[in-house]
Design brief:
By secondary structure, the protein is of the alpha/beta class. Helix content is 43%, strand content 17%. It folds into 2 domains: 124 residues, Aspartate Aminotransferase, domain 1; 233 residues, Aspartate Aminotransferase, domain 2 (3-Layer(aba) Sandwich), CATH 3.40.640.10. Helix 4 runs parallel beside helix 12, helix 5 runs parallel beside helix 6 and helix 13 packs parallel to helix 15. The longest helix is centred in the C-terminal third of the chain and has 20 residues. It starts with a helix and ends with a helix. Pyridoxal-5'-phosphate binds next to helix 5.
Protein backbone atom coordinates (compact mmCIF):
# COMPACT_ATOMS: atom_id res chain seq x y z
CA UNK A 1 0.00 0.00 0.00
CA UNK A 2 1.35 3.44 -0.86
CA UNK A 3 1.78 6.10 1.80
CA UNK A 4 -1.17 8.01 0.34
CA UNK A 5 -3.39 4.90 0.29
CA UNK A 6 -2.59 4.04 3.89
CA UNK A 7 -3.30 7.61 4.98
CA UNK A 8 -6.61 7.62 3.11
CA UNK A 9 -7.53 4.27 4.63
CA UNK A 10 -6.78 5.63 8.12
CA UNK A 11 -8.97 8.64 7.30
CA UNK A 12 -11.88 6.37 6.34
CA UNK A 13 -11.48 4.42 9.61
CA UNK A 14 -11.52 7.65 11.54
CA UNK A 15 -14.64 8.86 9.75
CA UNK A 16 -16.43 5.53 10.23
CA UNK A 17 -15.71 5.51 13.95
CA UNK A 18 -17.07 9.03 14.46
CA UNK A 19 -13.65 10.44 15.30
CA UNK A 20 -13.09 12.69 12.28
CA UNK A 21 -12.10 16.19 13.33
CA UNK A 22 -12.86 19.36 11.47
CA UNK A 23 -11.95 23.01 11.84
CA UNK A 24 -14.77 25.28 12.96
CA UNK A 25 -14.29 28.60 11.20
CA UNK A 26 -14.94 31.67 13.32
CA UNK A 27 -16.03 34.71 11.32
CA UNK A 28 -16.31 37.05 14.30
CA UNK A 29 -14.20 37.91 17.33
CA UNK A 30 -13.95 35.34 20.13
CA UNK A 31 -16.76 35.67 22.64
CA UNK A 32 -20.20 34.51 23.66
CA UNK A 33 -21.98 35.71 20.51
CA UNK A 34 -20.08 34.45 17.51
CA UNK A 35 -20.51 33.70 13.83
CA UNK A 36 -19.17 30.25 13.05
CA UNK A 37 -19.21 28.77 9.54
CA UNK A 38 -21.71 31.43 8.50
CA UNK A 39 -24.08 30.83 11.42
CA UNK A 40 -24.71 33.14 14.40
CA UNK A 41 -24.29 31.03 17.55
CA UNK A 42 -24.13 31.36 21.30
CA UNK A 43 -20.73 29.98 22.20
CA UNK A 44 -20.42 27.51 25.10
CA UNK A 45 -17.06 26.07 23.99
CA UNK A 46 -14.54 28.83 24.52
CA UNK A 47 -11.96 29.05 27.32
CA UNK A 48 -12.41 32.82 27.39
CA UNK A 49 -13.92 32.46 30.87
CA UNK A 50 -13.76 36.14 31.85
CA UNK A 51 -14.64 37.60 28.45
CA UNK A 52 -11.23 39.26 28.11
CA UNK A 53 -10.27 37.96 24.64
CA UNK A 54 -12.06 40.82 22.90
CA UNK A 55 -12.19 43.50 25.61
CA UNK A 56 -11.15 47.12 25.05
CA UNK A 57 -8.38 47.21 27.67
CA UNK A 58 -6.50 44.25 26.18
CA UNK A 59 -6.95 45.49 22.63
CA UNK A 60 -5.62 48.94 23.57
CA UNK A 61 -2.67 47.40 25.45
CA UNK A 62 -1.82 45.31 22.38
CA UNK A 63 -2.08 48.25 19.99
CA UNK A 64 -0.01 50.57 22.20
CA UNK A 65 2.71 47.96 22.70
CA UNK A 66 2.86 47.23 18.97
CA UNK A 67 3.15 50.97 18.29
CA UNK A 68 6.04 51.33 20.74
CA UNK A 69 7.85 47.99 20.45
CA UNK A 70 6.86 46.65 17.03
CA UNK A 71 5.12 43.44 16.13
CA UNK A 72 7.79 40.76 16.33
CA UNK A 73 10.14 39.93 19.19
CA UNK A 74 12.79 39.03 16.64
CA UNK A 75 14.71 36.34 18.52
CA UNK A 76 14.57 33.78 21.27
CA UNK A 77 14.70 34.87 24.92
CA UNK A 78 18.36 34.00 25.38
CA UNK A 79 19.50 35.82 22.26
CA UNK A 80 17.84 39.25 22.05
CA UNK A 81 14.08 38.59 22.07
CA UNK A 82 13.58 39.07 25.82
CA UNK A 83 12.24 42.63 26.26
CA UNK A 84 11.76 44.55 29.49
CA UNK A 85 8.05 43.85 28.87
CA UNK A 86 8.63 40.10 29.31
CA UNK A 87 10.50 40.82 32.53
CA UNK A 88 7.69 43.02 33.85
CA UNK A 89 5.13 40.34 33.03
CA UNK A 90 7.21 37.72 34.82
CA UNK A 91 7.47 39.87 37.94
CA UNK A 92 3.77 40.65 37.82
CA UNK A 93 2.88 36.94 37.54
CA UNK A 94 5.27 35.87 40.31
CA UNK A 95 3.86 38.49 42.65
CA UNK A 96 0.29 37.61 41.73
CA UNK A 97 0.59 33.86 42.36
CA UNK A 98 2.93 34.22 45.35
CA UNK A 99 6.07 32.72 43.80
CA UNK A 100 9.70 33.85 43.99
CA UNK A 101 10.10 33.96 40.23
CA UNK A 102 8.36 33.25 36.94
CA UNK A 103 9.38 32.67 33.36
CA UNK A 104 7.19 33.06 30.27
CA UNK A 105 6.81 30.36 27.65
CA UNK A 106 5.35 30.78 24.18
CA UNK A 107 2.49 28.34 24.90
CA UNK A 108 1.21 26.19 27.74
CA UNK A 109 1.84 23.13 25.61
CA UNK A 110 5.52 24.10 25.39
CA UNK A 111 5.80 24.84 29.12
CA UNK A 112 4.42 21.41 29.99
CA UNK A 113 6.53 19.68 27.38
CA UNK A 114 9.64 21.45 28.69
CA UNK A 115 9.46 20.93 32.42
CA UNK A 116 9.69 17.14 32.89
CA UNK A 117 12.55 16.89 30.38
CA UNK A 118 14.37 19.76 32.11
CA UNK A 119 14.26 18.13 35.55
CA UNK A 120 14.28 14.40 34.84
CA UNK A 121 16.68 11.97 33.28
CA UNK A 122 16.98 8.22 32.78
CA UNK A 123 16.98 7.12 36.43
CA UNK A 124 14.04 9.32 37.38
CA UNK A 125 10.28 9.00 37.58
CA UNK A 126 7.39 11.02 36.16
CA UNK A 127 4.09 10.21 37.90
CA UNK A 128 0.96 11.84 36.63
CA UNK A 129 -2.81 11.89 36.89
CA UNK A 130 -4.45 9.64 34.27
CA UNK A 131 -6.55 12.51 32.97
CA UNK A 132 -3.79 15.08 32.63
CA UNK A 133 -3.72 17.28 29.54
CA UNK A 134 -2.12 15.85 26.38
CA UNK A 135 0.88 18.17 26.74
CA UNK A 136 1.89 16.49 30.01
CA UNK A 137 1.27 13.04 28.58
CA UNK A 138 3.45 13.97 25.59
CA UNK A 139 6.08 15.34 27.99
CA UNK A 140 6.39 11.80 29.32
CA UNK A 141 7.43 10.63 25.87
CA UNK A 142 9.99 13.37 25.52
CA UNK A 143 11.75 13.01 28.87
CA UNK A 144 13.80 9.90 29.41
CA UNK A 145 12.31 9.07 32.82
CA UNK A 146 10.15 6.11 33.74
CA UNK A 147 6.50 7.21 33.32
CA UNK A 148 3.58 6.09 35.47
CA UNK A 149 0.01 7.32 35.78
CA UNK A 150 -2.20 7.29 38.85
CA UNK A 151 -5.99 7.06 39.04
CA UNK A 152 -7.72 10.40 38.51
CA UNK A 153 -7.40 12.59 41.64
CA UNK A 154 -6.14 9.62 43.69
CA UNK A 155 -3.23 11.01 45.74
CA UNK A 156 -2.97 7.70 47.63
CA UNK A 157 -2.35 5.87 44.38
CA UNK A 158 0.30 8.48 43.48
CA UNK A 159 1.91 7.86 46.87
CA UNK A 160 1.96 4.07 46.31
CA UNK A 161 3.69 4.50 42.96
CA UNK A 162 6.22 6.98 44.33
CA UNK A 163 7.03 4.86 47.37
CA UNK A 164 7.55 1.71 45.30
CA UNK A 165 10.04 3.44 43.05
CA UNK A 166 13.79 3.68 43.48
CA UNK A 167 14.07 6.66 41.19
CA UNK A 168 16.65 9.31 42.00
CA UNK A 169 14.26 12.19 41.31
CA UNK A 170 10.47 12.17 41.05
CA UNK A 171 8.21 14.69 39.37
CA UNK A 172 4.51 14.41 40.14
CA UNK A 173 2.40 16.24 37.58
CA UNK A 174 -1.25 17.16 37.73
CA UNK A 175 -3.66 19.54 36.08
CA UNK A 176 -5.06 22.03 38.61
CA UNK A 177 -8.55 22.36 37.16
CA UNK A 178 -9.03 19.47 34.73
CA UNK A 179 -9.96 20.77 31.32
CA UNK A 180 -12.36 18.05 30.25
CA UNK A 181 -14.41 17.36 33.37
CA UNK A 182 -14.03 20.35 35.66
CA UNK A 183 -12.62 18.43 38.62
CA UNK A 184 -9.80 19.90 40.73
CA UNK A 185 -6.67 18.11 41.92
CA UNK A 186 -6.10 17.36 45.63
CA UNK A 187 -3.26 19.83 46.12
CA UNK A 188 -2.49 19.37 49.81
CA UNK A 189 -1.84 15.57 49.75
CA UNK A 190 0.25 15.88 46.57
CA UNK A 191 2.19 18.79 48.03
CA UNK A 192 2.71 16.82 51.26
CA UNK A 193 4.00 13.80 49.28
CA UNK A 194 6.62 16.02 47.66
CA UNK A 195 7.52 17.84 50.87
CA UNK A 196 8.42 14.51 52.52
CA UNK A 197 11.48 13.93 50.34
CA UNK A 198 13.80 16.49 48.82
CA UNK A 199 14.11 14.50 45.61
CA UNK A 200 10.47 15.21 44.71
CA UNK A 201 8.79 18.03 42.81
CA UNK A 202 5.12 18.77 42.13
CA UNK A 203 4.11 20.34 38.80
CA UNK A 204 0.63 21.87 38.72
CA UNK A 205 -0.68 22.81 35.29
CA UNK A 206 -3.37 25.33 36.15
CA UNK A 207 -4.13 26.40 32.59
CA UNK A 208 -7.85 26.52 33.38
CA UNK A 209 -7.89 27.35 37.10
CA UNK A 210 -5.68 30.42 36.94
CA UNK A 211 -7.80 33.59 36.67
CA UNK A 212 -10.91 31.61 37.60
CA UNK A 213 -10.51 29.86 40.97
CA UNK A 214 -9.22 31.06 44.34
CA UNK A 215 -8.95 34.55 45.76
CA UNK A 216 -8.57 37.09 42.91
CA UNK A 217 -8.27 34.15 40.51
CA UNK A 218 -4.88 33.09 41.87
CA UNK A 219 -5.74 29.54 40.88
CA UNK A 220 -6.41 26.04 42.15
CA UNK A 221 -3.39 25.98 44.47
CA UNK A 222 -4.54 29.19 46.17
CA UNK A 223 -8.11 27.94 46.37
CA UNK A 224 -6.82 25.00 48.42
CA UNK A 225 -4.51 27.09 50.64
CA UNK A 226 -1.30 26.21 48.76
CA UNK A 227 1.18 28.22 46.66
CA UNK A 228 3.94 27.66 44.09
CA UNK A 229 6.76 27.59 46.61
CA UNK A 230 9.24 24.95 47.82
CA UNK A 231 8.68 21.75 45.86
CA UNK A 232 5.69 23.15 43.93
CA UNK A 233 5.98 24.55 40.42
CA UNK A 234 2.95 26.09 38.76
CA UNK A 235 2.17 26.51 35.08
CA UNK A 236 -0.53 28.91 33.96
CA UNK A 237 -1.62 30.01 30.50
CA UNK A 238 -2.43 33.49 29.25
CA UNK A 239 -4.59 31.95 26.52
CA UNK A 240 -7.68 31.09 28.55
CA UNK A 241 -9.06 33.28 31.37
CA UNK A 242 -6.47 35.96 30.58
CA UNK A 243 -7.79 36.33 27.01
CA UNK A 244 -4.29 36.59 25.55
CA UNK A 245 -1.68 34.03 24.53
CA UNK A 246 1.35 32.27 25.99
CA UNK A 247 2.11 30.76 29.37
CA UNK A 248 4.30 30.91 32.45
CA UNK A 249 5.98 28.70 34.98
CA UNK A 250 6.25 30.07 38.53
CA UNK A 251 8.10 28.77 41.56
CA UNK A 252 11.28 29.07 43.60
CA UNK A 253 14.04 31.02 41.85
CA UNK A 254 16.38 28.04 41.65
CA UNK A 255 13.75 26.01 39.76
CA UNK A 256 12.97 28.83 37.34
CA UNK A 257 16.66 29.45 36.75
CA UNK A 258 17.03 25.75 35.95
CA UNK A 259 14.31 26.10 33.31
CA UNK A 260 16.12 29.07 31.75
CA UNK A 261 19.21 26.86 31.49
CA UNK A 262 17.58 23.63 30.32
CA UNK A 263 14.01 24.01 29.02
CA UNK A 264 14.46 23.39 25.30
CA UNK A 265 11.00 24.65 24.21
CA UNK A 266 11.90 27.91 25.94
CA UNK A 267 15.45 28.18 24.65
CA UNK A 268 14.87 27.23 21.03
CA UNK A 269 11.84 29.31 20.15
CA UNK A 270 11.13 32.96 19.47
CA UNK A 271 9.91 34.99 22.45
CA UNK A 272 6.28 36.10 22.58
CA UNK A 273 5.61 39.30 20.61
CA UNK A 274 5.34 42.58 22.58
CA UNK A 275 1.63 43.13 21.86
CA UNK A 276 0.75 39.72 23.27
CA UNK A 277 2.87 40.31 26.38
CA UNK A 278 1.19 43.68 26.96
CA UNK A 279 -2.26 42.07 26.66
CA UNK A 280 -1.28 39.50 29.30
CA UNK A 281 -0.08 42.28 31.61
CA UNK A 282 -3.38 44.12 31.17
CA UNK A 283 -5.29 40.90 31.89
CA UNK A 284 -3.57 40.39 35.25
CA UNK A 285 -4.38 43.97 36.19
CA UNK A 286 -8.02 43.29 35.33
CA UNK A 287 -8.05 40.12 37.47
CA UNK A 288 -7.76 42.44 40.47
CA UNK A 289 -9.39 45.63 39.15
CA UNK A 290 -12.52 43.94 37.80
CA UNK A 291 -13.49 41.25 40.32
CA UNK A 292 -17.03 41.49 38.91
CA UNK A 293 -15.94 39.38 35.95
CA UNK A 294 -15.06 36.41 38.17
CA UNK A 295 -18.10 37.02 40.35
CA UNK A 296 -20.38 37.03 37.28
CA UNK A 297 -18.70 33.86 35.99
CA UNK A 298 -19.39 32.02 39.23
CA UNK A 299 -22.92 33.40 39.30
CA UNK A 300 -23.37 31.94 35.80
CA UNK A 301 -22.00 28.59 36.97
CA UNK A 302 -24.51 28.61 39.84
CA UNK A 303 -27.34 29.43 37.41
CA UNK A 304 -26.28 26.56 35.14
CA UNK A 305 -26.09 24.10 38.06
CA UNK A 306 -29.51 25.13 39.40
CA UNK A 307 -31.20 24.86 36.00
CA UNK A 308 -29.45 21.60 35.10
CA UNK A 309 -30.81 20.11 38.32
CA UNK A 310 -34.32 21.44 37.63
CA UNK A 311 -34.27 19.99 34.10
CA UNK A 312 -32.60 16.74 35.20
CA UNK A 313 -29.62 17.20 32.92
CA UNK A 314 -27.11 14.61 34.06
CA UNK A 315 -23.58 15.93 34.20
CA UNK A 316 -20.24 15.09 35.73
CA UNK A 317 -19.82 16.52 39.24
CA UNK A 318 -18.20 19.95 38.92
CA UNK A 319 -18.82 23.32 40.48
CA UNK A 320 -16.48 25.08 38.05
CA UNK A 321 -17.05 26.79 34.67
CA UNK A 322 -16.24 23.47 32.97
CA UNK A 323 -19.34 21.25 32.83
CA UNK A 324 -19.50 17.93 31.01
CA UNK A 325 -22.43 15.84 29.84
CA UNK A 326 -21.20 12.37 28.92
CA UNK A 327 -22.86 10.50 26.04
CA UNK A 328 -20.46 7.57 25.63
CA UNK A 329 -19.90 6.94 21.94
CA UNK A 330 -18.35 9.56 19.69
CA UNK A 331 -21.34 9.36 17.35
CA UNK A 332 -23.93 10.15 20.05
CA UNK A 333 -21.84 13.01 21.36
CA UNK A 334 -21.53 14.37 17.82
CA UNK A 335 -25.27 14.06 17.26
CA UNK A 336 -25.96 15.91 20.51
CA UNK A 337 -23.57 18.64 19.43
CA UNK A 338 -25.37 18.91 16.06
CA UNK A 339 -28.75 19.04 17.82
CA UNK A 340 -27.52 22.01 19.86
CA UNK A 341 -26.01 23.63 16.78
CA UNK A 342 -29.42 23.54 15.14
CA UNK A 343 -30.77 25.32 18.22
CA UNK A 344 -28.12 28.03 17.88
CA UNK A 345 -25.47 26.84 20.38
CA UNK A 346 -21.84 25.94 19.80
CA UNK A 347 -21.02 23.10 22.20
CA UNK A 348 -18.27 21.04 20.64
CA UNK A 349 -18.24 17.26 21.22
CA UNK A 350 -15.06 16.03 22.86
CA UNK A 351 -14.03 12.53 21.80
CA UNK A 352 -11.07 10.17 22.19
CA UNK A 353 -8.16 10.51 22.39
CA UNK A 354 -8.88 13.82 24.15
CA UNK A 355 -11.07 11.89 26.63
CA UNK A 356 -10.99 8.14 27.43
CA UNK A 357 -12.89 5.76 25.11
CA UNK A 358 -16.56 5.43 26.07
CA UNK A 359 -16.71 8.91 27.61
CA UNK A 360 -17.31 11.13 24.58
CA UNK A 361 -19.05 14.20 25.84
CA UNK A 362 -20.31 17.68 25.42
CA UNK A 363 -17.94 20.01 27.21
CA UNK A 364 -19.82 23.15 28.20
CA UNK A 365 -17.81 26.15 29.31
CA UNK A 366 -19.35 29.14 30.97
CA UNK A 367 -18.21 32.72 30.56
CA UNK A 368 -18.73 35.90 32.56
CA UNK A 369 -20.31 37.30 29.39
CA UNK A 370 -23.17 34.76 29.18
CA UNK A 371 -26.61 36.14 29.95
CA UNK A 372 -28.82 34.14 32.32
CA UNK A 373 -31.35 33.68 29.50
CA UNK A 374 -28.68 32.18 27.22
CA UNK A 375 -27.80 29.67 29.93
CA UNK A 376 -31.46 28.87 30.51
CA UNK A 377 -32.01 28.32 26.77
CA UNK A 378 -29.00 26.01 26.59
CA UNK A 379 -30.18 23.93 29.54
CA UNK A 380 -33.69 23.61 28.00
CA UNK A 381 -32.08 22.42 24.75
CA UNK A 382 -29.80 20.01 26.62
CA UNK A 383 -32.82 18.49 28.33
CA UNK A 384 -34.35 17.87 24.90
CA UNK A 385 -31.33 16.18 23.29
CA UNK A 386 -32.71 12.86 22.03
CA UNK A 387 -31.43 9.95 24.18
C1 LIG B 1 -4.84 21.72 30.88
C2 LIG B 1 -4.14 22.39 29.75
N1 LIG B 1 -2.82 22.55 29.80
C3 LIG B 1 -2.15 23.14 28.81
C4 LIG B 1 -2.78 23.59 27.69
C5 LIG B 1 -1.98 24.20 26.59
O1 LIG B 1 -1.98 25.57 26.68
P1 LIG B 1 -1.74 26.46 25.37
O2 LIG B 1 -3.04 26.50 24.65
O3 LIG B 1 -1.27 27.77 25.89
O4 LIG B 1 -0.70 25.75 24.56
C6 LIG B 1 -4.17 23.44 27.58
C7 LIG B 1 -4.98 23.91 26.45
O5 LIG B 1 -4.74 24.32 25.45
C8 LIG B 1 -4.86 22.81 28.62
O6 LIG B 1 -6.18 22.62 28.54
Amino acid sequence: MSLRESIESAHRDRQNSGLWRKLNRLESAQGVNIVCDGKPLVNFSSNDYLGLANCDQLKQATAQAAEKWGTGSGASHLVCGHFSLHDELQQQVAEFVGAEKAIVFSTGYMANLAIPAAFLSRHDLLVQDKLNHASLIDAGQLCRADCKRYRHLDANHAREIVQQSEAQRTLIATDGLFSMNGSTAPMKPLQQLCAEDESRLLLVDDAHGWGVLGEQGKGTLAQQGAAPTGPVLMVGTFSKAAGSFGAFAAGDAVLIEHLIQHARPLIYTTALPPGVVAASQAAIRLFTQQPWRREKLHENVATFLRLAKEHRVERLPSSTPIQSVVFGSPQTAQEASKFLLNRGFLVVAIRPPTVPAGTSRLRITLSADHEAEQIAALVRALAEVPA
